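Extended Data, panel c. Modelled sequence:
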Amino acid sequence: MFFAKPSKDFSRFYWGNGWAILRNVIASSVIDDFTSIYQNLLSNTDLQYKAMTTQCMQPLEINSYGYIVHPIADVAISDFINPHLRVFAEKARCILSAEALVAGLRQLHRQEEFYHAVMSMFFDANAGTPAHRDDYYLDSLPSGNLTACWVALEDINEEAGRFYVVSKSNLDNISLTDEQIRNADLYEQAVASYVSFNKARVSAPALLKGDVLYWNSKTVHGSLKTINPSLSRKSFTCHYIPRSCKYVRNVYQPIVRPCNGLEVGNVNFRFTSNVKSEDSSLNFSQLGRSLSAFENFT
């Protein structure tokens, strides 16, 4: 079920199924501005950025099809990690704070005006995302008020490895052992078994340029395998928490994280502990990380 604009039906479908789509949220011209800047960056293979898959600063690695191998982590604040990415990050923030995107969040969260944005990423091609719930890695307090967005920056071909969700998984209780809670590999195995048992509820909708899929922190999701690696899958993901809620490490160890950041419109893009900047007025000490693998409890 898809929607053209925020409505009560959009909200009702989201809370009942764990996800919903708004069409034509981001203007094509705005996306083209971002894509143009990104294409210019690809010629600079020495450019350092924070990679999602390695969690390290590294130069761009381009595959044989011309796509970056490692998705860009913390894309919305990438200029505070590397000042050479200033225009690139500004264009990303423009999309991820777009009024139409935030209007969808407002419809889902009692018309709340302001949101913290955490864990933003840019994908050039499908990196392969195992099935999981976001609340295993990060969530809101009260739990379940984090809403993530998957923004299509082009028409997504079904052979490129589409994003998928498991409908109504936000309403299910997936019981985990202490060992599965502590060990991310065992956790992913448990969720993979859940997906296999609930294949009939898996949806991998066709998303077109400018469409946004909203999903809940308790919704199981991932990406399908890439059938044709020559196809790109340019997209953003970002996670939003109403300002009235707290940002916590995860539902199993709900340690509250601070949300110091950069405000654009009604969105506060959260900084991370390893962010550096020449602007001495910005205090980055003890801010915590916005993107991390689930760590064992100590």
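The helical segments are 8-17, 28-41, 78-81, 86-96, 99-108, 178-182, 184-197. This feature is highlighted in the accompanying rendering.
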